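Our working data are protein records whose layout never changes between entries. Getting from the letters to the tokens is the skill we practise here. To make this concrete, we reproduce a full record directly below:
***
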Amino acid sequence: MSTASVEQPFGRGEPLTLTTIADEIMERHPGYRVEIIEGHLLVTPPRDAPHARALTKLMRPFIAGLDDGESEVLQNVGLWLPTGAEDYAIPDLVVVDADIDDHFVENNAYDPACFRLVLEVTSGNWKDDLKTKVAAYAEAKVPVYVVVDRKHQRLHVLTDPVGSTYENHRPHAPGELVTLPDSIGAKVSLDVAEILKAGQPRTGN
């Protein structure tokens, strides 16, 4: 993760709001993800192939039961946060109500009320996913937050948001089969070992 300075000149005569700076960073660095959480810019470089591979592996069980009818399974959709005037996050994967288009707020972000689950696959900025975003998603009252922690080889499931935390936070190790809460709209089970293996670089024979 890197942080953009608000003193950085952009030369367009626009007010230096965090949203303006975030838009400039994304324009200058295509493929970078820029989020604003608690008034701070979080900038993530393009993900590596194992990150994308883990996400593809994860998509399959979600799409099987949740991507038709009352819900949708989407990637990189902006989630408007109540933690600051310009705050928003862009989770790797979300399960949302099918009428999400009716819940647009601004800056390509949507009302958290239509999010049933958010999921992050960690990159170099893994501390953000395990700490900063826990508080942000809890404040937004997202019912279920899942983190694929590639650094520590764990899959975290957080449920029951209260204030800036989740009442229930359980890490799962390889060898476990995790069934997510029914509140997301369908039965979804995740093979922890399979997902974590997909998120690791492949080595030659």
About this structure: The longest strand covers residues 154-162.
